[in-house]
Amino acid sequence: xxxxxxxxxxxxxxxxxPRLRILFYRLLNLxxxxxxxxxxxxxxxxxxxRETAKILDAGMGFGQxxxxxxxxxxxxxxxxxxxxxxxxxxxxxxxxxxxxKNARFEVADLERFSSPPLFDLILSIDVMEHIPNxxxxxxNFFHALKxxxxxxxxxxxxxxxxxxxxxxxxxxxxxxxxxxxxxxxxGYNILMIQKKLREAGFSCTEAYYTYGKPGKISWxxxxxxxxxxxxxxxxxxxxxxxxxxxAFPFALLLNQMDISRKHSSGTGLIVKAWK
Length: 275
Prior knowledge:
alpha/beta; 19% strand
């Protein structure tokens, strides 16, 4: 099953016009449970930084969080970086058309990223699972933060966060593989990622599980099952709106349940670290 090609196809479709892209952001905000958790943490951070702030959206992808912050906080400065040229070009074009002048975008490899301590907040949302040398990236983040600045990470956990399924030896049917093909690791151990952050220099860390039992069901309903069907046939694009008419209310309810509870285990992690 291929997640990333389908994600790219959806991105290209919704990138046709600025209105479609804004609709895409709104759908992601509703459907992706990680966005619910990230926005919850951002609201807490925003309450303490109402005036000016400099933010690094590290691995910004489609620019979902850069748009959220730039739109609601015109006095804030957002720098989005990504290793993919096309993502940077798309965000440059869209943000210019949307009239958001407080965000800019650059191509950057986070393993080699270098910046003086300029940023009050660094976002790393579903990025670290794609990067082999995570220790170098954590050090680069530490050096780029102002004293007292915060790093906010959303990433899969080692409790099945990359949707890895153990099987036998046959690769075609039975080998262990991830539903998310671009991941270089099968998720982080909650203690290990905090240890790596402290070794990078961070003075304080906090972490908790997301995607508990309600979140796992929501992920299957809102993301996995539609992508499985799209892999079988692109004709499912036609049926997708009707599918979501049925699945969407259940996914919203499950997301609310997940964000309202503390989980002893879960397939996702929210991690915060302070310089």
